[in-house]
Please model this.
Amino acid sequence: MGAQLRVYKRRIRAVTATKKITKAMEMIAAARIVKAQRKVAASMPYANELNRAVTAVATGSDTDHPLTTEAETPTRAAILLVTSDRGLAGGYSSNVLKAAERLTERLRGEGKEVDTYIVGRKGVAYYGFRERKIADSWTGFTDSPTYADAKRVAAPLIEAVITETAEGGVDELHIVFTEFVSMMTQNPVENRMLPLSLDKVEKEEGAKAEILPLFEFEPSAEDVLDALLPRYVESRIYNALLQAAASEHAARRRAMKSATDNAGDLIKNLSRLANAARQAEITQEISEIVGGSSALADANAGSDK
Amino acid sequence: MAAELHVELVAADRNVWSGEATLVVARTTSGDIGVMPGHQPLLGVLESGPVNIRTSDGGTVVAAVHGGFISFADNKLSLLAEIAELADEIDQARAERALERAKSEADAAAERRAAVRLRAVAGH
Model:
């Protein structure tokens, strides 16, 4: 076998092996999207009820709470950035990182200091490589986050919001994550979670703008709000983590699908080249034989004379 | 037909129970509260404890609820809890073991959780 042909054969084998891996990853990701979507759907009733309750308290009482009142001159903001633990998901991590960069830029432009909190190894690596300060980070659960994970993430953030700004607390809390729109579309979004803007809560609740009744609060409006808002933050973070996980799987599925398609194309091209090389080899052998035999015939014809 | 109210018992990651009921008794931070149809709109903070739901067909549903909220408006009652389990779902032996372990490790939160679970099973 010719050297050229051997090289082609070897490359085809290598690409075939890669294709098998990417195909498997594609199918695993596809199976996980469905699971992740189901988790998002399962968390919806709780989130909706909580939204309703928060709206009810915030509109039904004129209590001032550090989590709902806007500081007159906000000087510090916290960003929670949700990235993935693993790569091979196309532009997933870099898109959400870009969105975070934009938001950081904007907040700095408004004269605010920015504390960054990161979920996911990719984000930690990105910030670590650029030697930027990370306020806190969590890794290891972006595939399938649980409510306990969300609680763990929320705790220091709530702490930071409640703390006075002068003592290292923050005035605003933003979250950057990838919203799961559909199997094909996932958008990086940035939301301001706190202080609460009520129009937004109402908007999220959907079109059914109901008039909320006057509630009786047990034990008191302040206490209810005190207990409610941390839960609200946790539930929002939980929802963001779940959506980010679904988006990550969808992005990975798409990336792996195009990798598999690409490998298929490569194999097709390489086998064409290998066929041509084999054909060239055969042609050359034939012409060598023909050439050899005609040279022999010429020599014989010459000696006959 | 007796008056009914619609109950949704929701945990952070799933819908635990929903249905019609005639009476719901839950423990708020300021004491036990019973809600019957037509109650005044209410929003309260729940303590960890069992919740009793008297269903409209005469049965009783008991659930262990670990912190959360009770909200009632429009004859609809929502019980929101980070963790909520129906008494049927609780494995009594496992809860007892958890209680023992929590006691020996002096883990107050785990001990309270296990105790609430056992109370819910006992009240069933």
User: Anything to note?
Assistant: Chain A has a mean pLDDT of 86. Chain A has two domains: 3-25+258-300, 28-255.
